[in-house]
Amino acid sequence: MSGTASRRSARSAAAYRCSECGWQAVKWVGRCGECQAWGSVTEVGAATARTTAASAVDRPAIPIGEVDVRRAVARPTGVPEFDRVLGGGIVPGAVVLVAGEPGIGKSTLLLDVAARAARSGDHGDRKVLYVSGEESSAQVRTRAERIEAMARSLYLASETDLATVLGQIDALKPELVIVDSVQTISSAEVEGSAGNVSQVREVAASLIQVAKARGIAVLLVGHVTKDGSIAGPRVLEHLVDVVVQFDGDRHSRLRLVRAVKNRFGPTDEVGCFDLSDVGIVGLTDPSALFLSGRTAAVAGTCVTVTLEGRRPLVTEVQALVTASTLSTPRRATSGLDTARVNMILAVLDKRAAAPIGGSDAYLSTVGGVRLTEPAADLAITLALAGAITDRPLPHGTIAFGEVGLAGEIRPVTGAHRRLAEAARLGFTRAVVPPGVAGAGPVPPGLHIVESATVSEAVGRGLYDGVTR
């Protein structure tokens, strides 16, 4: 056999395929050569062409104008911050995947959602089924009593078998089902332990089929991997209707819920929650968590307005600069991007002649919030400048803007939304990039200090307070 024929025969005899992207290989490998996923290549035999015969139609197609749109109307869960993220509530038949790190508060939030949804029926008897594959029913009830999530029509089941879960749904006929978590449920029809790729796909597909066929809303809890991605096959995110990410620092009370994918609403809304010993509470005005509450101005602090989706949040940045006793000065951050802070320190040193080279610099945010957008650059700059000069910003000052390597201050999106939030909270002075004042109406009582460069922002922000 010629070499070309041998290679063609080897390609046609491919017996391994990636369950994530479909990439094929002649021999087993630990990592997919196409999508780079680990452990997704399994033996499936040579690919063969298959055809499916037509079957009888149970529900014939109807004109689009005759489709009942009432079935796609969102129903509130009773938790306004969660409804905000979902687009008004949960649509009957929708499948929502709630992902987050272990211990972040997913189970507490969904148990509260389950209880409030159960009480929201016409007679307070909307049936909700909470399936726990990680805890016993007694453990779930203990948490429900602690967070005041008891409801007469809330039913608990501690199951890990998919067939039993489907049987519970058949017997109860609930309007809402919560499965905590999808990685703990397994099917006897599929090989492998609970949580592997095949099991997660089978469990999700079965629950999605039941949800669509019977109009039952389903909330699936999903764990995340070390890199923050949702555990299990990526196809799971494509199958569900909504993917909700649950974020937060384990050492902070603040929890943020945002929609990564939403077929029924926007994906730029963020829900804020306060997690405490007595449960989880939605925050309609979370800015108070991010401010220190001082009445006197302190050097090395600056307040900025960040946008989480479409929601403006006022956050305080604190900086401390002190003489270093080390050969290499220390740089430490909490809640800020260290690489971004180092860049701003270099810009201050080069463009504003700030004496920062031989000093240690420590920066942090208040309340455990993490600032990632470039709009916080100017606030970091002014906080560092105030710490270096030991001069506080005037009381009631906020700042936002992106800092470039040339020392220029660049405009950011949503400037007037940020200004409106600052004015609502009583701030009277805003240090902003040039052009903001002329781009739209400025809230009454808020003075705008436009600065084109870092040196100008430091001079006008800390010293003269010229407004225009």
TrEMBL record:
Residue ranges, annotated region (Lon-protease-like): 360-468
Domain (RecA family profile) ranges: 71-224
Domain of life: Bacteria
Binding site for ATP: 100-107
Xref: Gene3D superfamilies: 3.30.230.10, P-loop containing nucleotide triphosphate hydrolases
Motif RadA KNRFG motif positions after renumbering to this chain: 261-265
Keyword Mitochondrion listed: no
Signal peptide (UniProt feature, chain positions): none
Keyword set includes DNA damage: yes
Keywords: ATP-binding, DNA damage, DNA repair, DNA-binding, Hydrolase, Metal-binding, Nucleotide-binding, Stress response, Zinc, Zinc-finger
CDD domains in alphabetical order: RadA_SMS_N (cd01121)
UniProt cross-references to PANTHER family, sorted A to Z: DNA REPAIR PROTEIN RADA, DNA REPAIR PROTEIN RADA-LIKE PROTEIN
Task performed by this protein: DNA-dependent ATPase involved in processing of recombination intermediates, plays a role in repairing DNA breaks. Stimulates the branch migration of RecA-mediated strand transfer reactions, allowing the 3' invading strand to extend heteroduplex DNA faster. Binds ssDNA in the presence of ADP but not other nucleotides, has ATPase activity that is stimulated by ssDNA and various branched DNA structures, but inhibited by SSB. Does not have RecA's homology-searching function. Plays a role in repairing double-strand DNA breaks, probably involving stabilizing or processing branched DNA or blocked replication forks.
Family: Belongs to the RecA family. RadA subfamily.
Domain observations: The middle region has homology to RecA with ATPase motifs including the RadA KNRFG motif, while the C-terminus is homologous to Lon protease.
Name of the protein: DNA repair protein RadA
Organism this protein belongs to: Ornithinibacter aureus
Phylogenetic lineage: Bacteria, Bacillati, Actinomycetota, Actinomycetes, Micrococcales
